[in-house]
Design brief:
It is a single chain. With 360 residues, the protein is α/β, with parallel strands linked by helices. The protein folds into 2 domains: 3-109, Beta-Lactamase (2-Layer Sandwich), CATH 3.30.450.90; 116-355, Rossmann fold, CATH 3.40.50. It is 36% helix and 24% strand. The chain has helices at residues 3-22, 54-64, 67-76, 146-160, 195-204, 218-230, 243-252, 259-269, 298-305, 312-317, 327-336, 342-348; strands at residues 26-30, 36-39, 42-45, 78-84, 90-98, 101-109, 134-139, 164-169, 182-187, 209-212, 233-238, 270-280, 287-295. The chain has a 7-stranded mixed beta sheet, sandwiched between helices. A 6-stranded antiparallel beta sheet has the order 3-2-1-6-5-4. Helix 1 (3-22) crosses helix 2 (54-64). The termini are far apart.
Amino acid sequence: MNQDIHRVIEQVKQYKIKALEMGASDIFLSAGSKPALRLHGKTIFLEDEPVLSSVFLEKYLVGKMGEEQREAFGNQLELDFAIDSDVGARFRVNTFWQMGGISIVFRHIPENVPHFDDLNLPEQIKKVTHHKNGLILVTGAMGSGKSTTLAAIIDLINKEQHKHIVTIEDPIEFVHRPAKSLIEQREIDIHTKDFGRSLRSCLRQAADVILVGELRDLETISAAVTAAETGALVFGTLHTNGATNSVNRLIDVFPAEQQNQIRTQLSEVLKCVIWQSLLPLKHEERRVAAFEILFQNYAVSNLIREGKTYQLESVIEMGKNEGMVSMKQTLDWLLEKDLITVETAKKTLPNQADTFKAPL
């Protein structure tokens, strides 16, 4: 490695150290701008640092990418990969071209898999770990903590049950170590070519539990539903807000002539939908997680089968005894405790903005 590239890598290392010291979740290195961090959901510039050039960022990538990665980046103009950093932390990396040149985004991945109880997740979510088969969805916007929640759930299964767990990720984020379970992690483009193919392979690998990084297309969703029908417990993510929207998204991916069939399949295999959002606290520079949770029951299955998903919200509202909770109920509770502002609640559920009231 020549001296110039080494100097660039050392400079980026300092950005990583600063990000870790400040507790930032992301680092943004964008040609034409100063380095920036995401801190408690806000993007802030490192004002004392110089504006980055595309040449600077290209030298960093040359020093960090292998030959195959460089070729893939050249062909696709963007690339996802994960690195074990030189600062003792792991990062998920996305690099891409934009109008000003190259950009690189680092997402910090904690070294240790988060423990379920340490995340203050709703206790009723633990129920999903005891299903023998079915489909579990964790949904929400980018950066809402979906991967962290799934990692904690998989960790719980790994430590408490004797299972065969296979994860399919792009890229691998949290690294799990076998405890009571055998756990195998596969990365797209390194250990397998695509989600759909690797999901189908899981059926021949006798996987009890399958984690899919993202249900992003028809092939992946179809394979995930088939795996859940065949006897595996499948976990996946969607970039959707709300349990109803998540169910509709799965159905709408399919051609019109197949939608009745997928409704029937989902009515049987969909065990739980968890929608989560990270909201700024009113009095602290931190964020709090808000949840909507839908569990399968007879009414839920019927509504999905009959194409009446618009009624699912009513079922959630009335399903408290079964562990269900709506985002509206969660936001009302957070407002009552004076943890968030009315404006935050309205932004989270704009269609119900008129119903939110400040605490007395």
